[in-house]
Design a protein that fits this description.
The chain is mainly alpha-helical. It is built from 15 helices and no strands.
């Protein structure tokens, strides 16, 4: 169950990256803040790839299909990150992160259709339980009702959350498709190669966009290196974890473990942003954790 440990670590690192990047929204534009995640993450990813190669880990030779999957994942992750930055400006940190987990059902269905990844009754039940917990987090009124739960998804934060989830869904499938196309027994080498390739594509796209549309932001991104280096490091480490785990296990299962990010974010909400979660948010998080436990039982 190595993929579980890797996924838990990736969720913790991604929580740290999201919290750190939220601090950049006052310094940079949404695109500028998004670019730091990739521009400052790429050097760390290259060092990681070089280190495992030097340690004797086999790095597979990529083909055209690999680069096509990587290009798709690079673009959709950029769009998802932009939506996430806008989303975190509208609701508190924990609820904002919860909205992004709408990807679960999407990943499970599309993985089964596109990549033929197995979807068992146990994993399906786990996903539904956790998704219901996320739906509870989307409600805003003091009175809880089915109408409120449904209408909550028509608000702007929910629509942005759906956009984030869709972007991450396609990104996860693209990563899984890219690593599977390598037909490599080296899960570390395949994951690291995908990481560097996608980050390089994203860096080129965003630097070109900033130079064309927001030239003043280019200088600000460079000047913000003190604030951006740590989000870049944690983001690259989290991505390395996700890509490695998805090489070993279907994307739906990996991203299900990623729901621990909602739990970790409570620590950030309470101790860093000084935001107090409600009883409903705590109960909903219990459902999310319960869904994760069901998943672990079903795949054990």
């Amino acid at each position: 169950m190595l993929w579980i440990a890797i996924s838990v670590a990736a969720a913790a690192l991604q929580t740290a990256r999201n919290a750190l990047q939220r601090k950049l929204t006052g310094l940079l534009s949404p695109v500028g803040a998004t670019s730091t995640r990739f521009v400052y993450g790429l050097p760390f990813a290259i060092v990681y790839l070089a280190a495992i190669a030097a340690a004797g880990v086999a790095v597979p030779v990529p083909g055209a299909i690999f680069f096509a999957w990587c290009a798709l994942g690079a673009v959709t992750q950029i769009l998802a990150m932009l939506s996430l930055i806008l989303l975190l400006q509208l609701r508190n940190f924990t609820v904002g992160i919860a909205y992004t987990k709408t990807e679960l059902v999407q990943i499970a269905l599309l993985s089964a259709i596109v990549l033929s990844d197995p979807l068992t009754w146990g994993s399906s039940a786990a996903i539904l339980v956790a998704t219901f917990g996320i739906m509870l987090l989307s409600t805003t009124s003091t009175r809880l009702s089915w109408k409120e739960i449904v209408l909550g998804w028509t608000e702007r934060p929910a629509l942005l959350g759906l956009a984030v989830g869709a972007g991450y869904t396609i990104t996860a499938l693209a990563i899984r498709g890219a690593t599977l196309s390598l037909h490599s027994a080296s899960f570390l080498g395949a994951g690291a190669l995908a990481l560097v390739t996608i980050l390089a594509m994203q860096t080129l796209l965003l630097v070109a966009w900033l130079a064309w549309r927001e030239p003043t932001q280019t200088l600000r991104v460079i000047e913000s290196w003190r604030q951006s280096a740590l989000p870049g490091l944690t983001g690259a480490a989290a991505s390395a974890g996700w890509m490695t785990a998805m090489t070993l296990e279907p994307a739906a299962h990996v991203r299900m473990i990623g729901l621990l990010e909602v739990v970790f974010s409570y620590g950030v909400t309470i101790f860093w942003f000084r935001e107090r979660p409600t009883a409903r948010e705590l109960a909903a998080t219990g459902l999310v954790v319960g869904g994760i436990v069901l998943l672990l039982i079903s795949v054990a």
